[in-house]
Amino acid sequence: MKVPVYKIMVENRSGRPNTYIVSQDPPQTNEGASAKSLPLVITRIEAPPESTANFTIHRPSPYFAWVMISHGEPSHGVATSMTLNKAVKLGEMHDGTLTPGTTLQFDFKDRMPNFSHAEHIADQSGPGTFAIQTSSDFTRDDIRSSKLVLLLRLTTKDGSLTFVYPDHMLIGVGDDQRPWSAFAPEPAMTYTLQPKTIFYLYAMNHEERSILDVTVLSEGLKLDFTGDQDYQVRVVHEPSGKLTLQE
């Protein structure tokens, strides 16, 4: 099936240089799950006056679950880094028959976070969703502790390894290049996640993968890309500072 492509053209008529960023509405989670999903900056473009910023976003196919770290308590503007990822399939309904979405196991053996698709865990999520089951071998304090050790591969010529002491561990959801949202996992939980196709555009300067407070979403221009078709939208950044979607 063709992967939908979303194109966003932003005409900067504000009279000044601007940075534009795009985020996504975080996935819907199952009722009872206490984790609060946080939107991340997916991509950013700097645009001089009277220029156009062109964003092209491909809907993930497949989606990926990520292990991440935040460099500080997860909050607005805090930077994050990625470690490992695992591809997942969303549940699908065909002719009344459900093909369940992936159910991943997240464990913390030897203080090393990892995703696995364990044979003893049946795929069980419904249409448009996947699930993550967290093990009971870690605590809330573990994922907040500076003593937590993650092994990261550095982008050095010799491929050397180093230990990093993060401030907070997160699970992210996104494509194969980067997470688009994140949440802090708790032990012995099952999270059912349903990615959304609603995006937000801002005239705001934040780095890619940095965290946005969910209350900031209302300040952005909402772009609803529901369905399986491609979208191409044109937005004008007015001298007043308002972002206006052109019909």
Task: Quickly give the structural class.
Answer: mainly beta
Mean model confidence by pLDDT? 85
Total discrete domains: 1
Residue share in β-strands: over 45%
The whole-angstrom Rg is 19 Å
Number of strands: 22
For the record, give the distance between the C-alpha atoms at the N and C termini, rounded to a whole number. 28 Å
| Helix content bin | under 10%
Strand order of the largest sheet: 3-18-13-11-12
What low-confidence regions span 5 or more consecutive residues with pLDDT below 50? Answer: 146-157, 161-165
Protein name: MFS permease
List keywords for this structure.
mainly beta, five-stranded mixed β-sheet, five-stranded antiparallel β-sheet, 22 strands, 46% strand
